[in-house]
Amino acid sequence: MAGVPGAAEGLSRGGGAGAARSGWKRHIIRALKQRDRRQKASFQDVIQAYNRVLENTSFLQHLTGKIQTELTDPQISHTSRSPRTSLLVPNSLESLHAMKEQYQEQVAVLQSTGGELAYKIIELNKSLVDKDGKLEEQEARVSELDQEVRHLEASRKCLQVLVDLQETDNAELKEGYDTMLKCKHQREEELRIAVHKGEEALQGIVKKKEQEAVHRNNKNEREKKIRISKVIKKATEKTVSIDMEREDVATLDLKTLSLDIPEPQDSGKTLNRAFRSASATMLRSSKFVETFKDLFDFRKRRVNSMCSQSENLYPRAPVCVAATIPSKAIFVLEAHDSEVNGVKFSPSSKLVATGGADRVIKLWNVIGGRLQRIQDLEGCNSSITSVEFSPSGSQILAASADKAAHLWKLDGSKSKDTLTGHNDKVTAAKFKSVVHQAVTGSMDRTVKEWDLHKGACLRSIKVPSFCTDVVCSDYYIISGHHDKKIRFWDSRVTRCTEEIPVQGKVTSLNINPEQTQLLSCSRDDTLKVIDLRMNNVRQVFRADGFKCGGDLTRAIFSPDGNYAIAGSADGALFIWNVTTGHLEKSLQGMHSASVNAVAWSLSGEYVVSVDRRKMAVLWSAF
């Protein structure tokens, strides 16, 4: 039992340094000491009883031996006995035997008790050995824990240093964030002021344009009145000879009277006025005024008639006889500072226009199989979603996310007009076949027709869903929508004349040169060819690996109408044969991002594709 306190003291000494740092070590040592004290107190009574038993046994053995010696040797003098001994020895033999039996019984009882105590001591020694082993294990575990605590303490210090550094960095970031937030609020306020000023400036421009239009109209009216007065005055001064025959008078026209007013091209109208008198007199001025008014009113009615629209159509573009399928990339460049959304060839196939999220339209010359940048058209306030050349090639129309369409003239003046009126992002803007007219589609669920000469909206058509693209035929406006439908709108009325459902959100529309087929691209990863004569889906194009990459992914016909081409989300170009419906070719490896749009030159020689990572690729078969 003496080893237990020593072990506890050694544990106390060994863990003294650790106890100074943490309370749990002191708790373990205190518990071990209390256990030692409890075990020592429980064994103390046993040890004392055992010692008394040993003393009594030794005394009895000594007394028994002495008595036996005296009994076997009667010669021993009674005088030699000590007074104490003589008092303890009985006088009779019977008493001696009784005392011996009594002592033997006591010795047997003591031996039995001693055996039990010895067994208990052995058991307690075994328990003590087991507990000493457990104590050693606990001491080893305590040592391991001490070492682990030291490691954890070192780690904690390192982590505390890192926490301090991180708190310092966080404080710096917080300060920077507060500064940026303050700057953001300032910029937002500046933006709000700028937007307010821009709206005021736009209103001022609109008012100025209205004033200029009124002024121009007044000026035109004044000039018209002056011309009319001069013609009337000149006509009233003209005399006619009396020798003129009736037939000559019947065929009298304004050229004979030198009115200097061009006759309508298809007018066979003649002045069939008969003279009542053959006298030599001057024609009355009132009759000439009547004649001139009739002619002027006729011209006015002629210009505004339905037949006059054919005179204001763009001339038909030359037809591509056979387009060549591109097979390789001949030129690659980073076209814009951000995502490129639109690309278009000019009718001459010599210019390419690209527009993207950097709010700039760039013009490129196609020379020697390369794209050479020649001009930038600026003025948009947000991302450009599509670009379009006019059929004459003298204008560019762009749809933008700033809720407007923008028109540039390429006659050297770089003048720009803005078509405002939409309430959300404009997704498509296309020229109509009628000169100075265009159509736009928007996310605000409207399709609008515009007079580009006046910059005014002629008609606004409310549609049931977001419009993603529009195309124009001679008689219809066709729009594609997010609700998976293609709608046909008559140019003369504001109602939908036909709806064609498809299986996915429509992303683009394109019409072939003969205006007999419509190509649609949708988010169900298919291209569909629609017969415009029967208004039904004629073919569906699919391909392994083709996936529509966005809500405004553009697919087009080739200029001869024999092929359909579209870009995929993985950067590949897929070309289908419209006649057979089979995949003709897949061009891969040049784009590393989703292809947003493609353009095929009217000559059929080149294809340009643009993607979300600013790249433009020029493809050719040679």
Automatic annotation (TrEMBL):
It is found in: Cytoplasm, Cytosol. GO terms for cellular component: Atg12-Atg5-Atg16 complex; cytosol. It comes from the Eukaryota. One of its GO terms (biological process) is protein transport. SUPFAM superfamilies: WD40 repeat-like. Keywords: Coiled coil, Cytoplasm, Protein transport, Repeat, Transport, WD repeat. Residues 93-155 form a coiled coil. Belongs to the WD repeat ATG16 family. This is Protein Atg16l2. The lineage of its organism: Eukaryota, Metazoa, Chordata, Craniata, Vertebrata. The gene is ATG16L2.
